[in-house]
Write a structure and sequence with these properties.
It is a single chain. The strands form two sheets. Strands 3, 4, 5, 7 and 8 form a five-stranded antiparallel beta sheet that branches. Strands 1-2-6 form a three-stranded antiparallel beta sheet, with no helix packed on it. The N and C termini lie far apart (176 Å). The longest helix is centred in the middle third of the chain and has 71 residues. With 236 residues, it is α+β, with helices and mostly antiparallel strands. The chain has three helices and eight strands.
Length: 236
């Protein structure tokens, strides 16, 4: 049996033998990975090149820029609207507070007006219905202002209800001393036209001569040349 096997190997009928160079399997995986990466890079380059040729990449970038600008603009508009809303709220609050103050003042004025009407009605009841004394001086006040001036105030009224209109004039007379001697003004210290229906307040400032000390102030109301009423006060 051994002889037959040996003869078969040495003769023409022996089986053929092929010789191959075997690579290690890690090197085979490395070569495969390199080829796969190169193929992927080539495919990606072809895809990007195709997009640039077709103009798809430029349009996307422009669209992205436009969208970002729109977002920025919308955010700015939202901030402006929020600020406007805050300002409007503040103004509304201030207007409400001002309205409340005005309403309070109006209510106070109405109350004061009603009180004045009540007082007026009370005093009107005290005025006699028929003509009594006619025009009269109800108040006369005078005070010195410095060494050369005298301030005076006069209240003239007709103490009757539905009194007719009076037209006349008011004169203020002064008397006293000048340098220790008796003195009285030759002319009225003041003369003003007087016209009233119910009452009238008049006032003024009289200039005094040098060295005059006023002791008495007299006010009189004239209608034409007739004296209707006279009132005097003494100064301390």
């Amino acid at each position: 049996m051994r002889f037959r096997l040996l003869r078969r190997r040495l003769t023409i009928s022996a089986p053929r033998v092929s010789i191959r160079s075997a690579l290690p399997w890690p090197l085979r995986w490395l070569v495969a990975a390199v080829l796969l990466g190169f193929s992927a890079a080539l495919a990606l380059w072809a895809f990007e090149f195709g997009k640039s040729i077709a103009g798809l990449d430029t349009g996307s970038r422009e669209e992205l820029v436009r969208l970002r600008e729109d977002v920025t603009r919308l955010r700015a508009d939202a901030r402006q609207q929020q600020e406007a809303a805050s300002t409007a709220t503040s103004l509304l609050t201030a207007e409400r507070a001002a309205l409340e103050r005005v309403q309070t003042q109006m209510r106070q004025l109405q109350a004061d007006n009603q009180a004045l009407r009540d007082d007026l009605g009370f005093f009107e009841k005290l005025i006699p219905a028929a003509r009594a004394d006619g025009v009269s001086i109800r108040a006369l006040q005078a005070e010195r202002q410095g060494a050369r001036q005298l301030r005076w105030q006069v209240l003239v009224l007709q103490p009757v209800r539905n009194a007719p209109e009076f037209k006349g004039r008011l004169e203020v007379l002064l008397s006293g001393t000048q340098n220790g001697q008796p003195w009285s003004g030759a002319q009225p210290a003041a003369a003003q036209p007087l016209q009233l229906q119910q009452y009238r307040r008049l006032e003024g400032v009289a200039e005094l001569p040098e060295g005059v000390v006023v002791k008495t102030v007299t006010a009189r109301v004239l209608e034409g040349n007739a004296v209707r009423t006279v009132h005097s006060v003494d100064l301390d």
